[in-house]
Amino acid sequence: MQRTMKTATAAAALMVLAAGLAWAAQLLSVQVRAGQLRDKPGFLSKVVGELEYGDRVDLKAEKGDWRQVRSMGDGRSGWMHFSALTEREIILNPTDKDVQAAASSDELALAGKGFNKQVEDRYRKQTRLDYAQVDEMEKIAVPQKYIREFILAGRLGGAQ
Fold first, then answer.
1. 81: Cβ–Cβ under 8 A, 6 or more apart, which residues?
2. Vertex 72: Cα angle to 67 and 76 (nearest 5)
3. Contact in structure between 71 and 30 (CB atoms under 8 Å)
4. What is the pLDDT along the chain (160 residues), one digit of tens a residue?
């Protein structure tokens, strides 16, 4: 009886160890042109780095739609939204054209909500609004640093 208990305990310990190793070894690929690494899981948290399309990362933890990852290239760590990652290994030698064609994380987020270029074009045709100013505004890039300062100064929450 005692020998059976020891065997069962050893087998359970091996299963837990194997599960832990399988989790620790889960590799993902960045599937967006530029994936932002953040210090905390959230779109308003500080950007601590950026990974490129095809970069491999090791999954460390999950929190909702966010994945804590470590870059296999340079060891940088941070949180990325799951939509920027894929379990597939991306193996290609991208040309500038390939990289330009890759979806951005914003495009993937919009696509996940059913919005894409075709939907936008159809909406533009159905309305009489002039989108020239909207198109100009979309070209404006506000650094994350300023967005974070704005959120903190306005006590809007979400950034800590």
1. 43, 65, 66, 67, 105, 109
2. 65
3. no
4. 555 555 555 555 555 444 554 445 699 999 888 889 999 998 888 899 999 888 999 999 999 989 999 999 899 999 999 888 989 888 766 666 666 666 666 666 666 666 677 777 787 788 877 778 878 888 888 888 888 888 888 888 754 4
- CB neighbour burial string for 104-127, b if at least 16 within 10 angstroms, e if fewer: ebebbbbeeeeeeeeeeeeeeeee
DSSP state, residue 77: E
Q: Report the DSSP pairing between strands 27-30 and 34-38.
A: unpaired
The encoded tokens of residue 69 equal 């990852």
Token pair for 88: 């597939």
Domains of the chain: 24-153 (2.30.30.40)
Under a CB-based contact definition with an 8 Å cutoff, are residues 17 and 55 in contact?
Answer: no
